[in-house]
Amino acid sequence: MDSTTNEGASSSSSSSYTHSWTYDVFLSFRGEDTRYNFVGHLYNNLVQKGFKTFIDDEALKRGEEISSALLKAIEQSRISVVVFSENYASSRWCLDELVHIFHCKEQLQQMVFPVFYKVDPSDVRNQRKSFGKALVDHESKLKDNMDKVLRWRETLTKAANLSGWSFLADGHEYKFIQKIVEDISVQVLDSTYLDVAKYPVGIDFEQPETPISWKTCLQKMFEIAFCMSSSSY
Amino acid sequence: MDSTTNEGASSSSSSSYTHSWTYDVFLSFRGEDTRYNFVGHLYNNLVQKGFKTFIDDEALKRGEEISSALLKAIEQSRISVVVFSENYASSRWCLDELVHIFHCKEQLQQMVFPVFYKVDPSDVRNQRKSFGKALVDHESKLKDNMDKVLRWRETLTKAANLSGWSFLADGHEYKFIQKIVEDISVQVLDSTYLDVAKYPVGIDFEQPETPISWKTCLQKMFEIAFCMSSSSY
């Protein structure tokens, strides 16, 4: 297993970076907006497709700082999917998470895909509407740490400039989620191919398994049994 | 295939009743509340589990009367799942649909299960809050046809007295949906068993298929191949 260690790459985490991905997908989202509906369904679809997916527990977002467990999970994820929703930017934990995701993107070539869930990408990019209000609120509370807020702003702009998916409540959520999962499957297969070339030894990334029906399985078994019994006479 | 014909059982439909179910599940719901989110996900999960599921098109709920296509679909469904949401009762099409569903329950032993999606079953049962307001509105508009409104009220009460599922936005939607689909699977298996006893010839209902992974399938095939090759020596 190829492994690259970059200790101290994150000022807020004591963990080390490594390419031995533990998760296929890390989900970044605002719990109060989407945990029990959209993101829950997205998580379920990813898991059903065979992706090892990290979804945080509410308990990991308490206290002043984002937890080291959460930072480590981001570092151990091949892909981060960031679900921007109405109140994403009002959470400093979400914004810190986003900064760390971009750190991993730059340092570990982690793939990052934004999902704009009922928000306009341009409002995220330019911090307008709920995103604008949230950042102004943060600025008023963090007057001694304006660098931090500036970093949040820059990272939101970078994230909104990436390719992703946009949902504006005018279609079926389940079809939108299916599209995301299909696109991620393609990306993972592509990147696995690249990784195999780059790290030819000990790749431990598991391909998502495609489920088949028992009927198809039995059919295949009978075909084999028939071939074998024919050849033995 | 056993088939029972009850022509004229519905005054608003020219179709005939039959036990040759075309659909496993008919979904009754208020489009503007749940079509693109909750019901969409429920539909997708049912289909993925192998259930032939009827979900209406918005176009079927135009005009004065509920369309004959919709009535026929109800009659051809083994199970009706009625998703009560905030604005369900303000739609006369939904209420007419519900009355027809109960007609099929009584005449064809169709199974009916209510889902209370962010509404209290007792508000449906006693027509309070949004359900109360909707029925009062209908009464003010249908002064010459109070029998119709009374039938709607009685049917709402009957529906809310049935066993079903209740979701009050304090848990994961996807887990709630999984529970519904699992329970329906059990009900369908049970009723299929009963049907087999009752109608021993020509049952065309398809059992939902349980998907397995290719890995498991290959394992089974190798086991068979190994057994057969061992026995041929």
From TrEMBL, chains A, B:
Database matches in PROSITE patterns: TIR (PS50104)
A single Gene Ontology biological process assigned to it is: signal transduction
Source species, domain of life: Eukaryota
The record's SUPFAM superfamilies line, in alphabetical order, gives:
Toll/Interleukin receptor TIR domain (SSF52200)
Keyword annotations for this protein?
NAD
Presence of keyword NAD: yes
Any Pfam family from its record, for instance, is TIR
Q: Is the NAD keyword given for this protein?
A: yes
Where the record annotates domain TIR, the positions are: 21-188
Xref: PANTHER family: DISEASE RESISTANCE PROTEIN (TIR-NBS-LRR CLASS), TMV RESISTANCE PROTEIN N-LIKE
Protein name listed in UniProt: TIR domain-containing protein
